[in-house]
Design brief:
The structure is a single chain. The chain contains six helices and eight strands; from the N terminus they run βαββαβαβαββαβα. A six-stranded parallel beta sheet has the order 3-2-1-4-5-6. The protein has a two-stranded parallel sheet with strand order 7-8. α3 runs parallel beside α4 (107-114). It has helices spanning 11-22, 49-55, 65-73, 107-114, 150-160, 176-185, and strands at residues 3-7, 26-31, 44-48, 58-61, 84-87, 119-122, 143-145, 167-169. Mean pLDDT is 79; it is low at 34-39 and 187-195. By secondary structure, the chain is an alpha/beta fold. It starts with a strand and ends in a 10-residue tail after the last helix.
Amino acid sequence: MTTIGVLGTGGIAVTLATMFARAGHEVRLGRATTARGAPGATGVTSGSCEEVVARSSTVIPAFLGVQGAVQQLRPWRAGLRGKILVDITNPFTGGHVDFVGPWAVGGTEDLAAAFPEARLVGAFKNVWWETFDGSPDPAAPDIRVISDDAGAKNAFLRLCATTPFTYTDAGGLDQARRVERMALSGVGQTGLSAA
């Protein structure tokens, strides 16, 4: 069985962990302490981030921004080798009104450069995180999934198949900048971004 590890204890992390647990997956939530259980995350076990990375085949870090994710993940670089690493970040400025960095570079590309041993997949970047909190909105757009690793992308799409949302193969990591900017376009979206 594939184990999905979600790193973080904020609303985004708990919401994604709960969604995958409801879809029938084994899910672990990585937290700063080793206390058992996670508020609001039914069917999810928890442990330290180090333990969750070691025991999961797919890792979803729910940290603020790409640079935040890079810094937080550095201690577990060796543990990420060969694993699917799902980037949900968007390079928003404060207030979510613009993007940090040049148009030509997407956040997932930055994470791929920082962790070349991991199998990078970008997902949940074109929708607001509230999309996953509660019943699916029929008007919600398809979730775009990107990766240069076709095997990793297909494996992640299979994991998502039992969730109540629609996923679309949106190409390689060179599409990150386009997919990330879909969230800020406001088309069919409300609230805050996935990262």
